[in-house]
Amino acid sequence: MRGTVAGLDIGTTKTCAVVAIESAQGLEVLGVGEAPSRGMRKGVVVDLEETIKAIEAATEQAERMAGVPVQDVYVGITGDHIRSTNNRAVVATANDSREVGEVDVRRVVDASKLINLPADRQIIHALPRYFTVDGQEGVDDPVGMAGGRLEVDTHIITGGQTFITNVLKCVHRAGLEAAGVVFEPLASSASTLLPEERQVGVVLLDIGGGTTDIAVYSLGSAIYTATIPIGGSVLTSDISLGLKTSRDEAEAVKRQYGAGVRDNQSEGTFSVRTLDGHASKSVSTAELRAIVVPRVLETLRVARQKIIENVPRDLVLGEVVLTGGGSLLPGIAAIAEDVFGLPVRVGVPKHVVGLTETVAQPQYATAIGLLLFGVNGHGTMIETSRRRTLGNRIRKFVADLWN
Ligand SMILES: Nc1ncnc2c1ncn2[C@@H]1O[C@H](COP(=O)(O)OP(=O)(O)OP(=O)(O)O)[C@@H](O)[C@H]1O
Ligand SMILES: [Mg+2]
Fold first, then answer.
1. Which of 133, 227, 383, 392 is the residue whose CA sits 20 to 30 A from 73?
2. Closest residue by CA, ligand 1 atom 21
3. Domain boundaries of the chain, sorted by first residue
4. Ligand 2 centre distance from Cα of residue 209 (Å)
């Protein structure tokens, strides 16, 4: 039995920790924990103490369910500070036999990271899209091939140093070690997409509370990634303002009726409590749709526009996959089909065993994806000064178990 791994998704609305073990059947989820995030806004930390509390609560819940302490975690990163670009680099293969070795692959990928970067930004990922060996394009794995000239095309994702450091500060102060950081839509893609979809061309949209994260794949690899600071929270605010009701009531209305008519019932009315909570009023589904649809359209159109501006004109895309809590909005798939002119499906996390009933929900796509991304060795280590607080955590965990 190999060691446990953990994923930590510090979202704008909820913080989610998942613990898994690498078993013969695959990655087996042992525990899931969730706590409301009160210290996050649009994907970034705005309150350290609140964020630490949420991390501790989610992690402890996951540990309790799993019966093992959480040590190293793969941490999700998102926010308006993230930028992505594609780059290309070339090296001569280093050995006399003119054969591409692993060291050459590392050298060429490292060379592709040499981009002009302001001092306050850092590279989170340099993902090889494909290699070219002595002019032969489209090589997935060049190791062992004959050739003297190795080129790589990479997708590079950078983030603002302070935003990343603040997330890692919270992780460390919650007594955890960051095994690596992962840009969130890459994690969500790892858990929800199929290899065939990435090959044909697919848009992944993770619609969360504060952000909508985008990842576009073609020919098997990421070609464009981005994040938009609009998510499900603003829709709740719109409903609350539009129907003059509390946020809680607006949230419930959104989940029940969304942009459509529930369960294909005919057009009708439903009752909503007034702001003071003492009376109810009748609202038509058409009235709700007039609030919800424009905001959903706006979000999806911004995503589409960003994609159009940033991918090659002739790129073939076969499908849109929606995930994140926002993808549960009744009626959203039909709106997305209109906006993108492509088939749309809602993606739930797959590719793991254990607790599958619990985790097969779109809001867990990032957390599960962090595990998958992590065990496949793609999590990026970001060096920071750390305090070793793990001993305390394990002791606390053991003590709690006997209480
Ligand atoms: N059934 C539903 N219908 C509509 N919206 C829903 C439903 N369930 C959850 N949501 C919305 O999903 C959002 C939360 O999604 P999620 O948990 O993926 O976000 P997050 O990861 O915390 O935030 P972010 O990714 O933006 O940092 C909330 O705005 C919530 O209102
Ligand atoms: Mg999220």
1. 227
2. 11
3. 83-160, 233-291
4. 7
The protein residue whose alpha carbon is closest to atom 4 in ligand 1 is: 329
pTM of the model: 0.93
Is 328 touching ligand 1 by the criterion CB < 6 Å?
yes
Closest C-alpha to ligand 1, atom 12: 325
| Rounded Cα distance, 124 and 147, in Å | 30
In angstroms, what CA-CA distances link 375 with 171, 258, 390, 403? 19, 37, 21, 33
Of ligand 1's listed atoms, the one at least distance from the Cα of 232 is 29
Atom 25 of ligand 1 has which residue's CA nearest to it? 208
**Distance in Å, CA 93 to ligand 2 centroid:** 41
Decide: residue 367, CB within 10 A, 0-12 exposed, 13-18 middle, 19+ buried: buried
Percentage of the residues of the chain whose pLDDT score is greater than 90: 84
Q: Is the CB of 374 under 6 A from ligand 1?
A: no
In a 13 Å sphere around the CA of 304, the CA atoms on its Cβ side amount to 17
Which DSSP symbol is given to 276? T
Which of these, 113, 117, 125, 124, lies nearest to 89 by C-alpha position? 113
99: three-class secondary structure by DSSP: strand
Query: How far apart (Å, rounded) are the C-alpha atoms in residues 11 and 45?
Result: 10
What is the CA(273)–ligand 1 centre distance, in A?
Answer: 22
Cα 199 to Cα 86, 217, 370, distances in angstroms: 18, 7, 21
Token pair, residue 231, equals 């998510």
More reliable by pLDDT, 396 or 142: 142
Q: What is the DSSP string of 130-147?
A: EEEETTEEEES--TT-B-
DSSP 98: -
233 Cβ below 6 A of ligand 1: yes
CATH of domain 233-291: 3.90.640.10
Return the CATH number of the domain spanning residue range 83-160.
Answer: 3.30.1490.110
Beta-bridge partners for 213: 206, 227
Question: Per residue in 170-191, pLDDT tens?
Answer: 999 999 999 999 999 999 999 9
CA atoms within 13 A on the CB side of 87: 20
How many angstroms separate the alpha carbon of residue 14 from the centre of ligand 1?
A: 8
3-state secondary structure of 21: strand
